Amino acid sequence: MCQRKFNSKKMITQHMEYHKNHGPIKCQYCEKIFHFESMLNKHIKCAHSKETTSKFKCRVCERYFKSLKEKWDHEWNIHNVRKAIVDCLVCDSRFRKYSELKKHCNEEHEILIPPKKFLHWKMKDPALKC
């Protein structure tokens, strides 16, 4: 319960009834507890202005980013999160996109690899090293 003080028994009773009917509210950003929605809203406005203006949340550490690209770059660079596995089999470099792998193999290893639509992912062809 809160530490508020009251001048009358009626006000204490009303206040106790409020706490009985309204459970504590947890901040969605830092999990602090508030007993009044108005106090929670004030807290969010003061303490979490970046989170409320940034819409893209990291799936690992829950940091917020203003653009989807910033979020993807963060997840890739900090947490090594990626949807597709596109590793170079020659030097173990890692790429987010097949097009980046293709460019890398051509420039670094002078190996041409077929367009993605012609590549059979399950087939292990020794001629295709990237």
TrEMBL record:
Keywords: Metal-binding, Repeat, Zinc, Zinc-finger. One of its GO terms (molecular function) is zinc ion binding. InterPro entries: Znf_C2H2_sf, Znf_C2H2_type. Residues 25-53 form the C2H2-type domain. The keyword Nucleotide-binding does not apply. The lineage of its organism: Eukaryota, Metazoa, Ecdysozoa, Arthropoda, Hexapoda. This is C2H2-type domain-containing protein. Transmembrane segments: none annotated. It comes from the Eukaryota.
